[in-house]
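Interim report to the steering committee. The following record documents the input for Molybdopterin biosynthesis MoeB protein (106 residues).
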Amino acid sequence: MSTKTLIEEITPNEVSHRINKGKRDSIIDVREHEEVAEGAIPGIHHIPLGELEDRLGEIDKNKEHILVCRSSARSGRAAEFLKSKGYKVKNMAGGMLDWKGDLDRK
């Protein structure tokens, strides 16, 4: 039996719909700087996966956070790590590969 924590997922369409309705979700993009420069969901908080543990102080434990990466693998690891630390998280299934909404280019 796996000890892997079950992480709730949210689809890119659901995230886009919530943004379009004016919901100010906390979206944390864990991709590398070069990846985010190519395009990111508007309003994200960028914390590369390798910096996550050192930057926990930037993440509000009282809010739910949506984790994003290119394909949802790294964000899944980030979500598991944050959940183990007591954070409320969801992983965006399919990652930016499945994102059809607006992009900010940094």
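The first helix runs from residue 12 to 20. The committee is asked to note this result when reviewing the revised timeline.
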